[in-house]
Write a structure and sequence with these properties.
single chain; about 140 residues; mainly alpha; about 60% helix; about 0% strand
């Protein structure tokens, strides 16, 4: 009987830890992925916090995954969006207006740290952002 109880407890514990590693917001609301910010969903935060009660690591991982994917935020926050490709040649002013409306920041195109490149697909965007992030960390 004690052996059965140990196995049951081990399976239950493994299930709880496994569910926390998946991150609650990502499992509950996969459509929320890509949100940048907004109000935090208390249901997701509490569910992730349950992982902190069992063990620290699963809870921290759940929070990290949900924050990085944006699944922890309630709908209505800003989302990361792909701008559809166009044949129209964008001017610096049009790009600046679009950036300003999305982020509230304007770009000084005359500064030395501005890099302008044509990218043909989303993978190139991710590669370029990763390379620039690594380079900026080395500068700091």
């Amino acid at each position: 009987m004690a052996n059965f109880r140990q196995k049951t407890l081990a399976i239950a514990l493994a299930g709880i830890i496994g569910s926390q590693l998946a991150a609650c917001g990502t499992v509950f609301y996969p459509e929320r992925k890509g949100q940048i910010n907004g109000r935090i969903d208390p249901v997701v935060a509490i569910a992730n916090g349950v992982g902190l009660l069992f063990f620290i690591v699963p809870g921290v991982i759940a929070f990290a995954v949900d924050f990085s994917t944006g699944a922890i935020y309630l709908p209505g926050g800003r989302r990361a969006e792909n701008i559809p490709p166009t044949d129209h040649k964008l001017t610096e002013a049009e790009i600046n207006d679009t950036l300003y409306s999305a982020t509230g920041t304007r770009v000084d195109w005359q500064q030395d740290m501005v890099l302008v490149e044509r990218l043909d697909n989303e993978q190139q965007v991710h590669r370029l952002l990763a390379a620039n992030s690594a380079a900026m960390r080395q500068v700091q």
